[in-house]
Amino acid sequence: MKNNKLNKYGIAGLLAPIIFLVTYFLMSSFRPEYSHLTKAISELGSLDAPNKWWWNIIGYMLVGGMISFFAIGLKQSVNPDGKGKLAFWGLFLSGLFMSISGVFPGDFDNRTSLTMILHAIGSFGSFVFFLIAAFAYPKQLRKSEYWKKAATPSLILTILSIISGFLRTGSAPGLGQRIGFFFYFLWIGYLAYMLLNKRKEINTV
Fold it and tell me: Own/partner pairs for 134-138, CB < 8 Å, 24+ apart?
């Protein structure tokens, strides 16, 4: 694959977590009543939220699209032979379902409404497909001399993202969700960094 393609895919993967984080803190700063410990992240884009479409379009749709775009470059680098489809589709669909969660704002006052159900499908589906990709990729990474060093760290980040789910209880249920998002985006950012670093190694050969 040409170096400039590695570059744009890697940059997309690195920017996705940054854009999400900046948008999250910016949107939450506009709402003094918003609690990082008790509110769901999706409530920044709920039906009754001010500036909801700013959050849904940038925080979910754009970022989700960038993750799916990054998935294409990661597959082409890790599996240039066309194999590893399960890992690729898992990550690609994780980004796509994140975008879907932004298309349908959550209705937290009526959790049985159609828009809330579709939002939940997008949100839950994004994480499920991520887990499929995250558990499938280590096997693919170990097949490459360059990528094999990323197999164990990526698996550790995956496990940590799952463990965080047990923190979504008590007086601060939002904490576990944010930790889960942290490891999710750290996984993406780490592999994006590896993709960009591979480009540098190719250029020095």
Answer: 134/90, 134/158, 134/161, 134/187, 136/84, 136/86, 136/87, 136/90, 137/78, 137/84, 137/87, 137/91, 137/191
Taking only the tens place, the pLDDT of each residue in 62-80 is: 999 999 999 999 999 999 8
CA-to-CA distance for 31 and 194, rounded, in angstroms? Answer: 36
Q: Which helix (H) or strand (E) holds 32?
A: none
Query: Does residue 112 or residue 174 have the better pLDDT?
Result: 112
Q: Residue 7 contacts by C-beta under 8 Å, 6 or more apart in sequence?
A: 196, 199
Residue 59 near residue 45, CB atoms below 8 Å: yes
108 token code pair: 């937290």
Comparing CA positions, the residue from 62, 43, 71 lying closest to residue 177 is 43
Asked if the model's pLDDT at residue 58 lies above 80, the reply is yes
